[in-house]
């Protein structure tokens, strides 16, 4: 895992977007196409806004949705489908395909199986992700399942995760936050040939420290990133402020 620290959130977001674009271009040059995974949340907002401006042939790119709340309508402000359609798909000219998680599917397990069939046989070139305040990856809250081979799973959201969603302004209060979600599994995320992980803000500093310096454990799911051979962790100064040892700020 390579640590990349920047003075500001904007500089971090630009650098992460440029790295992601380079990795997508690399996949297109090598394979003629690219398959990518995209996350949502406050940590991804600025990175995605810069990613869609990069010189990428989006007609050769297929995107997969990382996670979605169950039972949340597409019209809800917190809908991750709405988020990605408005902030990415509608702004990436000629995007080949976007495979969304349908959180309103009547059978969550069947939806997981549908998505698993789509992604299971593919080479995934890049995952653009973040880290939660509780150290989660996607909606794999601690203790995360590090063993399942299923590509997508139905998960229960812990209180820390749900409080983060309220704190970021997606929901008015804790009662309004769904208790379950459909999430890409840890093993499926780790199958990606490359990972760009973007983590801004001081509220993530403790999770970053544990992710980088702690032992690999499913109680801090993001620690699994230590084992990935092509993972870049992009942070602003506030997110990196608790690290004991760190590279120079860019």
Explain how this protein is built.
By secondary structure, the protein is an alpha/beta fold. It has a single domain, classed as 3-Layer(aba) Sandwich (Rossmann fold). The strands form two sheets. A seven-stranded parallel beta sheet has the order 1-10-9-6-2-3-5, sandwiched between helices. The protein is globular and about 50 Å long.
Overall pLDDT level: 95
Biggest pleated-sheet summary: 7 strands, parallel
Number of strands: 10
β-strand amount: 15-25%
Element string (H = helix, E = strand):
EHEHEEHEHEEHEHEHEH
- Give the number of helices: 8
Shape: globular
Strand order of the largest sheet: 1-10-9-6-2-3-5
Q: What structural class should be given to the helix and strand makeup?
A: alpha/beta
CATH-defined architecture: 3-Layer(aba) Sandwich
CATH class: Alpha Beta
| Low-pLDDT regions | none
CATH third-level topology: Rossmann fold
Tell me the domain tally: 1
What share of residues is helical? Answer: 25-40%
Compose a concise summary of this entry.
The chain is α/β, with parallel strands linked by helices. It has eight helices and ten strands.
Features:
Rossmann fold; 31% helix; 250 residues; three-stranded antiparallel β-sheet; 8 helices; single chain; alpha/beta; seven-stranded parallel β-sheet; globular
Task: Outline the fold blueprint.
Layout: E1 2-6, H1 9-31, E2 34-38, H2 45-51, E3 61-65, E4 67-69, H3 80-87, E5 97-99, H4 108-119, E6 126-129, E7 152-156, H5 159-167, E8 180-184, H6 186-190, E9 195-199, H7 205-213, E10 231-236, H8 237-240
């Amino acid at each position: 895992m390579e640590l990349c620290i920047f003075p500001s959130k904007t500089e971090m977001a630009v650098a992460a977007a440029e790295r992601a674009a380079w990795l997508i271009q690399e996949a297109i040059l090598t394979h003629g196409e690219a398959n990518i995974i995209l996350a949502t949340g406050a940590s991804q907002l600025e990175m995605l806004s810069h990613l869609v401006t990069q010189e990428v042939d989006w007609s050769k790119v297929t995107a997969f949705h990382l996670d979605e709340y169950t039972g949340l309508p597409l019209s809800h402000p917190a809908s991750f489908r709405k988020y990605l359609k408005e902030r990415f798909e509608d702004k990436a000219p000629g995007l080949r395909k976007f495979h969304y998680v349908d959180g309103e599917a009547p059978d969550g397990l069947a939806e997981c199986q549908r998505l698993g069939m789509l992604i299971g046989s593919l080479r995934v070139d890049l995952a653009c992700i973040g880290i939660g305040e509780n150290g989660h990856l996607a909606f794999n809250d601690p203790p995360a399942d590090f063993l399942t081979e299923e590509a997508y799973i139905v998960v229960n959201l812990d209180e820390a995760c749900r409080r983060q969603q309220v704190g970021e302004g997606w929901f008015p209060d804790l009662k309004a936050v769904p208790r379950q979600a459909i999430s890409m599994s840890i093993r499926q995320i780790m199958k990606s040939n490359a990972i760009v992980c973007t983590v801004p803000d001081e509220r993530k500093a403790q999770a970053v420290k544990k992710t980088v310096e702690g032992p690999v454990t499913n109680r801090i799911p993001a620690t699994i990133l230590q084992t990935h051979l092509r993972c870049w962790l992009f942070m602003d100064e506030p997110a990196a402020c608790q690290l004991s040892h760190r590279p120079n700020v860019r």
